[in-house]
Design goal:
By secondary structure, the protein is mainly α. It is built from 13 helices and no strands. Helix 2 runs antiparallel to helix 10, helix 6 packs antiparallel against helix 11 and helix 9 packs across helix 10. The protein is globular and about 45 Å long. It starts with 17 loop residues before the first helix and ends in an 11-residue tail after the last helix. The relative contact order is 0.23.
């Protein structure tokens, strides 16, 4: 009689598509950010909206950490603080840009930072982007440039708003880079919790610096930042930060570019900012870039020994 040899448990294979899918979903959710901002400007200033968005997200994220991880958030690292710093600066400049230029212009220009993050990841994280990323990045830049050139010029401060958005693009690339570093010792929900905590504190000083009122004119003024906290901060940013743990930083930067396409489509009907032919072509180029960035490089199989 022989003893049966216990069979090893099958090892669950990681799903390589899950991380990029989460980043793409987060980018789509982020497309509602400029819409919520525009709808809330009659009650609050742009920096105050950002402050309440972060603050409302903190208890939601803490509850999620306790429910999912069943423990308190781990100690934050320096990378998550730097990510919060660059994100707060990015959002401050972008919110100002949205009050000066069109939603589509501000959103497309600031998302150039998501293309630049591929070069930053190559330099600092040694994540060498492939040929697909280079082609996708080129298409994304052309698409953003096409949309910017297609502006109708109806916004009096459009040029200054575009410059603000361009500066925000630089900060967003550093935000993505340090968020990737923060995920090395923190889970996705933990990273988002600490990001929101630090962003709330930093945004508090941004409101003081700008001279805006903290409180809205009526209680309904809290609705826009509350919606932004749920849809953009918790769902959108949470999906991106979680997906970054298993997605190349360069690829993630391209996938997040789904955001300006969503924003431009909604603002077309909501704010009467129609896309011209050249802007529509730019949006199409962005969508092709998003698809191309997800494609794996094909390699020749090695000859059999």
């Amino acid at each position: 009689m022989t003893n049966a040899v216990p069979q090893p448990r099958p090892v669950l294979q990681p799903r390589p598509w899950l991380g990029p899918l989460m980043v793409l979903g987060g980018g789509i959710a982020l497309g509602f950010a400029p819409i919520g901002l525009r709808l809330g400007l009659h009650e609050l200033g742009p920096q105050a909206i950002a402050f309440w968005r972060y603050l409302f997200a903190v208890p939601m994220l803490l509850i999620l950490v306790l429910a999912v991880d069943r423990r308190l958030p781990a100690t934050p690292n320096i990378a998550v603080f730097l990510a919060a710093l660059f994100f707060t600066l990015d959002m401050a400049l972008w919110h100002w840009a949205l009050t000066m230029t069109s939603v589509s212009n501000a959103t497309f220009i600031v998302n150039l930072g998501n293309v630049l993050v591929g070069l930053a990841a190559w330099a600092f994280l040694k994540e060498r982007p492939g040929l697909n990323w280079a082609l996708a990045a080129g298409l994304a830049i052309l698409g953003a440039a096409a949309l910017s050139l297609g502006g109708d010029g109806t916004h009096p401060g459009a040029l200054r708003g575009d410059l603000f958005a361009l500066a925000a693009a630089v900060f967003v690339s550093f935000y993505m880079l340090f968020s990737k570093l923060a995920r090395r010792t923190l889970g996705g929900l933990e990273a988002m919790f600490w990001l929101s905590v630090f962003e709330t504190a930093l945004a508090f000083f941004m409101v003081l610096f700008s001279g805006e009122d903290f409180m809205p004119k009526t209680p309904t003024g809290f609705l826009a930042p509350l919606a932004l906290a749920i849809v953009v901060q918790v769902a959108g940013q949470g999906l991106i930060i979680s997906g970054l743990g298993s997605t190349d930083t360069a690829v993630a930067g391209i996938l997040v570019l789904a955001q300006p396409v969503v924003a431009a489509a909604i603002s077309w009907s909501l704010f009467k900012e129609p896309l011209t032919t050249i802007q529509a072509a730019g949006a199409a180029a962005i969508l092709v870039a998003v698809w191309l960035a997800q494609q794996k490089q094909r390699t020749r199989p090695l000859p059999a020994a």
